[in-house]
Amino acid sequence: MQFDCSICGEQHNELPDIGHDKPAHWWDIPEDERTERAELTSDTCIIDGEHFFIRGVIEIPIHEYHGSLGFGVWVSQKRENFQTYLDNWNTSTIGPFFGWLCTWIEYYEEDTLLLKTMAHFRGEGLRPLIRVEPGEHPLAIDQYEGIRLAKAWQIIHYYMDSDG
Length: 164
Description:
By secondary structure, the chain is of the alpha+beta class. The chain has one domain (about 15-160). The protein is about 25% helix and about 30% strand. The chain contains five helices and ten strands, in the order βββααββββαβββαα. The chain has helices at about 25, 35, 80-85, 140-145, 150-160, and strands at about 5, 10, 20, 40, 45, 50-60, 70-75, 95-100, 115-120, 130. A five-stranded mixed β-sheet has the order 3-7-6-5-4. Strand 6 (about 50-60) and strand 7 (about 70-75) form a beta hairpin. The longest helix has 14 residues, at about 150-160. It is globular. The protein starts with a strand and ends with a helix.
C-alpha cells in the first residue's frame, strides 16, 4: 500500500520500524572496555555479569491503518527471568516479566529511560511485545490510545531526516 507522505510529499510503501541495537547502558561502558564487560547479541545483552537486557518491540497502534508503528527497544530483566527467557526463547508460555525500559526514544521530549514495562513473550520467532505501564508519559499514551498515520510518519521522518 502506498501513501502520499504529508511530511515530505513523497510516496512511501509500508511504515518501517524504528530499531535500537543496544541498550542505553551499553553506551555507558568506555569503548575500550566493551568487549570485556558486555556480551551483546541481536536479542540479549549482559553487562558485568549482573545486568541483563532483552530486546523487544513496543507497538503503537495506528488509527485507520492495518498495522502499527514498532519501536525496537531493550528492557532490563532480573537474572532468573533472563535465564527463563534464554531457556524458552521461542515460546509464549512464560511471563509476562517486569523490566525497566532501557532505550531512550529520542522522539519523545520526556525521557523514556526507566519507564516501567512488562515483556510479553510471543514465541513463533517473534521478539517480546513490550507494554509500557499506563500513565501520563506521551509514549504510554500513544501505546494505549494509538496515533494517527500522520503522526507515525512524523516520527519516522524524525529519525530519517535527523538520524535521531
